[in-house]
Amino acid sequence: MGQRKAPKDGDRKVGRRALLIGGTAAAVGTAVLARDELARLWWRVPGVEKPRKEGEVDFAGARWVAASDANWRRADRPDDYGIDMVIIHVTQGSFASAVKVFQDPEHGAAAHYIVRKDGHITQMIRELDVAYHAGNRDYNERSIGIEHEGFVDRPQDLTDEMYEASARLTARICARYDIPVDREHIIGHVEVPGTDHTDPGEHWDWDRYMKLVREASTAKA
Questions:
Q1: Which of 3, 8, 148, 208 ranks highest by number of CB atoms within 10 Å?
Q2: Is the pLDDT of residue 2 over 90?
Q3: Three-state DSSP class for residue 93
């Protein structure tokens, strides 16, 4: 196709009124950005801490077991960091070993939830806080991490109970933060940029899992 001609008014001079309106809009935009940045910084000020109840969980039926403070960062999500993603992991070990390492301050990582083979769900970090689970700071700040007990090379570890419980959990998270139920927003750890992890592995049935999440999302409360 040939080159399109510029519109006749393409080089029209901008009037003083337009400049004033544009300047006002820019000032408002700057103020909004400054407010958002202050909201993020507020919860990092020493001595400032959002009120929270000890042992409180974000998903009904989950059991609370606290991860080490060294494996996550206090925040006020989604007010300071928007949440638009769920990241699926596999522990590469037993449920007990995953809990143990998430409580180890030397480990340097932990997820918000662990789903056991029998469908039991343990929460170790509040959703409002940033868990060190993705190996990517940006993804950590915008996501919820869900670990699943088992090994990536053992399909028998991925039980019906686990899929169903995890799908209900993910559906609830998506509803709470208005996250689209699709593969752009529900991803595997392997899909995080810069990671060297392969979980949840080739045996994780994404078609089955997404179908279960959609069903849980539309089910009546």
A1: 148
A2: no
A3: strand
pLDDT classification of 219: cutoffs 50, 70, 90? confident
Of 153, 159, 87, which Cα lies nearest the Cα of 116? Answer: 159
Cα 152 from Cα 158, distance rounded (Å): 9
Work out the average pLDDT over 79-97. 97
Average pLDDT, the chain: 85
| Percent of the chain topping pLDDT 70 | 76
Distances (CA, A) of 146 to 13, 109, 127, 187, 200: 55, 13, 11, 11, 10
Question: Which phi and psi angles does 131 have, rounded to 5°?
Answer: -90, 145
Instruction: State whether residue 142 is helix, strand or coil.
Output: helix
Cα–Cα distances in Å, from 154 out to 90, 92, 201, 205? Answer: 11, 10, 10, 13
Give the list of residues 6+ apart from residue 14 with CB closer than 8 angstroms, or none: 22
Q: Which two tokens stand for residue 187?
A: 């991803």
**Residue 207 corresponds to which amino acid?**
D
Structure-model confidence comparison of residues 33 and 97, the more confident one: 97
d(CA 198, CA 190): 5
Q: Tokens 């995080």 appear where?
A: 192
Cβ count near 133 (within 10 Å): 26
